[in-house]
Amino acid sequence: MSEALKSKIEVPVMSEVFAQGKKPEYLFWVGCAGAFDNRYMKVAKSFAYILNHIGADYAVLGTEESCTGDPARRAGNEMLFQMQALTNIELFKMYEIKKVITICPHCYNVFKNEYPDLGADFEVISYLEFLYEQIKQGRLKLDKSKLQGKRVTYHDPCYLGRANNIYDIPRKLIEELGVELAEMPRHKSFALCCGAGGAQMFKDAEKGTKEIFIERTEEALSVNPEIIATACPFCMTMLTDGLKYKDKIEEIQNLDIAELIVTAII
Amino acid sequence: MSQIVFIFFLTLTIAVFSYSAYRIYKFFKLTKPAYPVKEIGKRIKLTIENAFFQERIFRKPVAGFMHAMVFWGFCIILIGSIEMVIDGVSGQERSLAFLGIFYDILMAAGDVFAYIIGLFIIIFMIRRCCLNIPRLHGKELTKKNHFDAYLALSLILILMITLAGINIFYVASHTDYVGKFPISSMIAPAFAGMSFETLELIHDINWWTHILLIFLFANILPYSKHFHIFMSIPNVFFSRITPLGKLANMDSVTKEVKLMMNTETAFAAAEAEAVSRFGILDVEDITWKNYIDSLACTQCGRCTSVCPANITGKELSPRKVIIDIRRRMNEKGPKLIKHGKDYSDGKSLIRDYIKEEEIWACTTCNACAKECPLNIDHPTFIIDLRRYLVMEESAAPAQLNAIFSNIENNGAPWQYSNQDRLNWTL
Questions:
Q1: Cβ–Cβ below 8 Å for A9 and B242
Q2: If B361 and its partner were Cys, which of A6, A187, A206, B229 is the partner (CB 3.0–4.6 Å)?
Q3: Would you call B241 an interface residue with chain A, using a CB distance cutoff of 8 Å?
Q4: Do residue A194 and residue A121 come from a single domain?
Q5: What is the ipTM of this complex?
Q6: Does B360 touch chain A (CB under 8 A)?
Q7: Domain B2-237 part of CATH 1.20.950
Q8: Domains of chain B by residue range
Q9: pLDDT tens, residue by residue, B209-240
Q10: Which chain B residues are within 8 Å of A44, Cβ to Cβ?
């Protein structure tokens, strides 16, 4: 499957689809990391690959996509956040978007919990919820032998976990892969943050005795995984950096759940 | 005679307590609205789960179990204390005895709990002084905080000893006593050799010590971290019931942004109704929820023990931030009441209490809010401090100012062109 990801992938763009008089069922919101972060671009591509594979009726905004405003809001810039939010809501209304799928938990949280205060009226679906639904409906079939026996640990992103109580779906998806799930001592609602939330991703940490991402990476390493599964672009940056710092990047892979699913897709 | 003495002390207790309550009420009047308290059914359910069933506290199972036993014991013993007040005022003895079998159960449970709580309080004291539990020794805790903790534990211990004393000597001095006292009635025969008068005297000493200590304790609480005992259940009931990830919208900003975005009204934006201040600089900007959080906090430090910033040696401690609210209110509140809202003492919550370094270290991961047994909401308060720094002072760290301008100019926190937004498909 990874071969398929090496070539260009065809993705429907909202403005073009809309011009043909069609209204896709889903908007796939790629987010800034999906669009610009070299590592996470592969996750966006993996998810789009799955969407194409199951024949989902979707589109992306492409060049019309902009920041949700989440990092601005969490850094205290409410003015900038609201300008972004109100502009995005206008655009969504123009395209009559009713369902939005996000891959980034920060985008998910801000759309689901905060945009409604500013007049947004659309359903927000995390890509994990979407993928699980597709498996349940039988539209997405996985070959359990592909990753069988691999030891995987899952790092809960704060904005799916504590923020929105999504703990079980990622674990059910990992189970569908036929791998062995090894939980870290701090998991689910006890999970330790990777250190990137609240706009920390975009600045240096304050003075301390240790970097948060190292603390978390060490915890992940303590359960001897072959794969560290993540479900957030910023967690991925942090834990991949942690693996590099610990000189484990050659032995241990940090993969997004969407990438794991692409590996096992039938 | 003893009735008069009792009524005197009861009146004094109520008077002093009323004064303390009124003082806190006036502090609340200085605060700003947080959110409307709706969905009462959901709140009652939450209060039952979190307060009466102690759900959150069991996230730390051992300490949680001991706390839960102390809490449930207090609930039972409280009924006995109410009886003591009725007895004291009316001059009767055991005035709730008419409850029959229910009274037996109440007294029996209270008797057993007195010994359990006494034992657990001793364990709590040993834990606090001799075991190395980091969250009980945070550097933000002052000598007064530690004194507060030992004072409360000692008072509770004496309350339990005197309660046991009341029970033992009540049983020992009566052949026809009412109620059931499973543990005390086993100890009572040990004093069988004493005269009735001696037994009754020891009973009365215990009785008076117990009730007067309750009166004293009730009046220390409003000035101690153990105000927790009064404020924690209301704090759970009034807590934010939206998902932890949600930040409240600033409607004052929405008005301005909407005016700005509409070309016809863009100029009116500048004249839009003046908001006194965006975010929180000082204690007059906080909401009633921030203040009740600070009153309910008993400084257990569960929040700080799970804070990723604190674990990795940063200055931020969510517990400290909440304690600071109360400290600052105690300092500035009385002066705001006296001199009016515009009073300034040249200090503020930000910088004089909470350093910028603390404010910017938060990852908004909500581990603290999830851990707090009382649903104290630290992250939204920290965000409100950031809102002040950014919107009033433009005092964000340089790297954050850079992402603001990137978001404004090219719709992403990074400096990439929007035209490249589909490069991931290649």
A1: no
A2: A206
A3: no
A4: no
A5: 0.95
A6: yes
A7: yes
A8: 2-237, 251-410
A9: 999 999 999 999 999 999 999 999 999 999 99
A10: 424
